[in-house]
Amino acid sequence: MSVLALLLAGPLQAWGASARFARRTTEHAPTKSGVLGLLAAAQGRERTDDLSDLAALRFGVRIDQRGTRIRDYQTAKHLDTGRSMPVSERFYLADAVFVAAVEGDDTLVNDLHRAVRNPVYLPYLGRRSCPPARPLDLGIHDGRTLEQVLKEEKWHAAGWYQRRLRDQPEVTLGLLIDAFPGDPGADSLRDLPLSFDPLHRRYALRGVRSDTVSVPNPCARRTTPPDHDPISALGGE
Amino acid sequence: MSRTIIDLHILQTVPPSNLNRDDTGTPKTAIYGGVRRARVSSQAWKRATRMAFNSLLPPEDLGVRTKRVAELLAERIRRLDNSIEEKEAWTLAAETIQAATGSKIEVPKRKAAAAKKSEDNPAPESSYLMFLSTRQLDGLAGLAVEGRADIKAFLKDKDTKKRAKEIADTRHSVDIALFGRMVADGADINVDAAAQVAHAISVHAVENESDYYTAVDDRNPDDETGAGMIGTVEFNSATLYRYAALDVDLLRKNLGEGLREDESVTEPLRRAVEAFVRGFVESLPTGKVNTFGNHTLPDAVIVKVRTSRPVSFASAFEEPVTVTEDSGHLRQASERLAAYIPDIERAYGVEDDTDTWVLRVGQSTEKLSGLGTEVALPDLVTAVGAAVAQRAADQ
């Protein structure tokens, strides 16, 4: 088993799990269907191709920088009649950073790694207008579990964000990981892609377990206070 | 197979303006690097680019996006054979489009009901916006005229039906090949867009401002003081970072599918790439442009031809640029890019195989001059087009 880790960072991202019609929402973290879609596209799979090998990968994501949800109001007009089309609302996550990881069979994970570095279809963060602003590839991790990789990967939040939390030598980050069957604390989300066929998209329910992990803050202030003993200046015993 | 991807990076300063506004009239914004930024949505700039194509490309390279495809096709059918009456042409058109795209073409219910009361004869329409190229329309018109005698039976034939589908799925117009097409119930003839356009964001923090205005009534009687009208317009001014990536291999596939054996895709490909570069660089969304007159051109353009994956430089501006006593947003943004680009390309080992062109204006962008070959726009467009055609011919 190997784990492929990806850095998902950009001014805008959008990870919809149940968005339909004119209101396109986003979850607060990348979805499994979104990330598998990115990987499948990188490999050059067509929308109608089989996904079962990808769907079988274990998936997890770490929230390195939460971001802000913003709403985009979008209008469209007929180019020839000038008539207005229904208004749509799109939601984006602005200013967010995530580490996503997939765990599975060595050959498949290695192949995905190659694909991410030489993608057939260009990658985007949930919506085509959201290109990644930093390289996606965080490398292959052999012989480690998904949980280990997500716990050991360094904190990828932006510099300003790390400095803002400089009072915390360690920061606590949220994790959302595929639950094991029968996990009692799991939430479920309709987010396991069975087919990206545009005529018949299908998703199954997926169990998601939330957890947290502490990682060191490279921008933290020194924790030991400087030596300061004003009384010593007065002399004495 | 060697890969070709173009990425375009633009710094453009716009004075007070409202290029792209939300439902309250406020210029669109985003948060990046913890501060508010001016934003122009990708859709707005893609539309501006597509409108620019009208003056850059001959009409036969372009498409029409409409629900009134039947009327459009009927006009062409009647041009081919002027003995066909309008109503017959509508039927021929509707049947042919239905066979070619799988989408229903019928008179909208509301119009049909209204027509019963009056003597009007409404034309059938598709229920979705359809995006067909001029060449595709010509092909379908020819097919419809050929099967005029009994159009239903003609299209039921397996081979004819296949021909109809092929016509709708080949020789895509340049704008469809670049920006894609979605026909909601004929997904087998969808085209995946070859161009990826990001939302433009300002390189610095922005506060939206509000202009309070009054208008004087010229024929105001003396005994009544005050304004004839008051209101506010919101605006901001920004130095924007604009980014787009173009998957040249996908563009080539979109343009080339269905070309005859003896036709080379190199020439259409070069034309499309040149139109995209020029159109994206020069175009400007028209929002409130008559109010603010914000007709600017980019201060700096960097174009790269890459061989593995596109690279956005948005991260260079994650920490917002600030104005100092001797340096404005544009100078600092240029300095950031000049330092960031070699840095990230070295870190990820992508610098060796990248052709780079730089178009820049004025002293503030001096730092960018070392990044690539310096050119003016016409030469930039030709050089990128030639590089792409060369790479396509080599394959």
TrEMBL record, chain A:
GO terms for molecular function: RNA binding. Residues 216-237 are annotated as: Disordered. Keywords: Antiviral defense, Signal. GO terms for biological process: defense response to virus; maintenance of CRISPR repeat elements. Residues 1-16 form the signal peptide. It comes from the Bacteria. NCBIfam families: casD_Cas5e, CRISPR_cas5. This is Type I-E CRISPR-associated protein Cas5/CasD. It comes from Thermobifida halotolerans.
TrEMBL record, chain B:
It comes from the Bacteria. The lineage of its organism: Bacteria, Bacillati, Actinomycetota, Actinomycetes, Streptosporangiales. This is Type I-E CRISPR-associated protein Cas7/Cse4/CasC. Pfam families: Cas_CT1975. It comes from Thermobifida halotolerans. The gene is cas7e. InterPro entries: CRISPR-assoc_prot_CT1975 (IPR010148).
